[in-house]
Structures are given as structure tokens and as C-alpha cells.
Design brief:
This protein is an alpha/beta fold. The protein has eight helices and six strands. Helix 3 packs antiparallel against helix 4 and helix 7 (about 185-190) crosses helix 8 (about 195-200). The radius of gyration is 16 Å and the shape is globular.
Length: about 200
């Protein structure tokens, strides 16, 4: 079983790694870490990379297990993130196809960070028609700890662009800012469509 951290949708490199797996468990006991993709993703705007961060109660310096982290409802971050995504990708070939279900995802009323991140991962799995099985945290197999491989992604918001081994594709603002690798999987999904993303990222 593949044990890994939650990511906010996930970078392209992270999703490529997931596509190689058959069973995945997202570690709800892992401590929250600042400057990670646990509550942040990078999309592409006309001026270049744009960071979208989920605000959390207690600030980003805490080491609380991620399943105890509460999202901060005092700011309309869901509306802001959805507006930013729509602004950046409304001209992409496949955004209109995914927009209704994405709207629904952001309109859900989760309070815990892991609940929203879990919904994001299930959404990505559905759009990519991915084969991996998401194992819930109360599954007895996790307690047995047999054949569990813990994976730590080396890519962070500070270095994600250094991953140059991923396939290239046409990005919305590539003519203005050039090609930027390993941003959120949403970028590739909206530009290429789920079927092509799956084909480009999944190993033969």
C-alpha cells in the first residue's frame, strides 16, 4: 500500500506518482507543515505562477496532525480560489467541461482541511479515470502496517519548477510566460483533458 501526504489537488509530478499505484492511503496523522502543498497549489495566470493558499485556524507554523486542522471560515477563500481558477482557465480547451463539478466541489461545506483535500483527490481520480483505490484511514490493513510504503514528495512550493522530466503540453499563457513545469494538475487537466493527461502521465 502506498502511504502519502495530502496535497491541494496535487502537482503534476505528484499525480504522476499516484498513477503508478494500485492502493493509496492519504496520511491523516501526518503533521501539518508550512510551505508545503498540503494547503497550497500553484496555477498559471497571465503574469506567471499564482499561489492559492487555504487559510487555516492557528496559522501555518503549527505541527498539529493534519486531521485536526480546521480551515478558516472568516475569509471567502473558496470563492476567491474558484474565481482565480475561472479567470486563468476560462479560455482553456476543457475548462467548461469540468466547471460544473468543480463549482460543486467548492460549494461543499467541509470544515476540516482533510475533508476538503480528500474531496479534491476523489475529484481528480474521477476526472482522470484513475485505477488507484483510495484506502480509508479506518481500514484494518493500515493497522497491520504490512507492505506499506511511505512516500514523501520532494517537490515543494519553493522548488516545484525544477522538475523537468514531465511531458510538455500547450499551456494557456505559454506565449507570454513560457512553459512552466509541475504546477497543479488542474492546469494540465484543463489544457489537455482527462483522457490525454492519463495517457501522458501513466507508465506503459
Amino acid at each position: 500500500m502506498f502511504l502519502t501526504d495530502f496535497q491541494y489537488f496535487g502537482t503534476i509530478g505528484f499525480i504522476q506518482t499516484l498513477l503508478k499505484q494500485t492502493q493509496i492511503n492519504f496520511d491523516a496523522q501526518a503533521p501539518f507543515t508550512k510551505m508545503s502543498f498540503k494547503n497550497r497549489m500553484v496555477i498559471l495566470a497571465s503574469q506567471g505562477p499564482l499561489n492559492l493558499t487555504i487559510p487555516i485556524i492557528g496559522g501555518r507554523d503549527q505541527k498539529t496532525p493534519i486531521n485536526e486542522i480546521m480551515m478558516d471560515p472568516s475569509t471567502p477563500w473558496k470563492e476567491q480560489h474558484l474565481k482565480a481558477i475561472r479567470t486563468c482557465y476560462k479560455r482553456s480547451p476543457y475548462f467548461e467541461f469540468y466547471e460544473p463539478s468543480l463549482d460543486q466541489l467548492y460549494n461543499n461545506q467541509e470544515e476540516k482541511l482533510v475533508d476538503f483535500l480528500g474531496a479534491c483527490q476523489r475529484w481528480i481520480k474521477e476526472q482522470l479515470k484513475a485505477d488507484w483505490e483510495i484506502i480509508p484511514n479506518n481500514n484494518p490493513t493500515l493497522q497491520e502496517k504490512k507492505e506499506i510504503v511511505k512516500y514523501f514528495s520532494s517537490w515543494l512550493p519553493k522548488n516545484y519548477g525544477q522538475c523537468d522530466s514531465l511531458p510538455k503540453y500547450h499551456q494557456v499563457f505559454e506565449d507570454k510566460v513560457g512553459f512552466i513545469s509541475n504546477v497543479s494538475i488542474l492546469d494540465m487537466l484543463f489544457c489537455c483533458g482527462g483522457k490525454e493527461v492519463h495517457q501522458l502521465l501513466k507508465p506503459i
